[in-house]
Amino acid sequence: MNTKEVGHLIEKAIKEESRSLDLSNQQIEAIPALIGRAGGLVGLYLRGNVGLTVPDEIGDLPKLEWLDLSCIGLSEVPAFVARLKGLKFLDLSGNRLRTLPVEIMDIPTIDISHNPFDLLPPELVRQGTDAILEDFRERRRSGEKEQWVSKLVVVGQGGVGKTCLLRALRGEKFVELETTHGVEIGALELGHPDPNRHGVVMRLNTWDFAGQEINHATHQFFLTNRSLFLLAWNARQEWEQGKLYYWLDTIEALAPDSPILLVATQIDERDARLPIAEIRGKYPNVAGNWPVSNITGAGIDELRTAIANTASRLPLMGVKWASTSLAAANAIRELPEKHTSPQNLMELMATHGVPENLRCDLAQRMHDLGDILYFQHEEESSAKRHKADLDDIVILKPEWVTRDISKVLESEEVEHKKGIFSRKHMNALWPDLAYEPHIQDVFLRLMERFDLSYRTLESPDLSLVVERLPLDAPNYAPLWNAHTDAGRQEIAIRYQLSTIPAGIPTWFFAREHKYTTETHWRNGAVFAQNLTREMRIALSDAASASYALALAAAANTHLALVTADARNNSVKIVARGPMPANFFALMRDGMEYVLARFPGLEVKRFVPCPGHNGEPCDFEFDLVNLETAVQKGRDHVQCGRTYEDVSVMELLYGVHPQTTIDAKLDEILEVTKTTRDGVSRTEFKLDALTLKQREFTAQFISIQESIDRRCPNVFTLVRNKRPGFLGSLRDRVAGGELVLHLCCQQPGAWHPVLKGGVYTIHDPATWLKTMGPYMRGLISVLKFAAPLVGPIAGIMDDKAVKEFENQIKLMEKLVEDLPEIEEDADLETVEAIGKSASPVEAQGRRLRALRYLLGSRDKSDDWGGLDTCRTKEGHLLWLCEHHKALYRED
Question: pTM of the full predicted structure?
Answer without folding.
Answer: 0.74
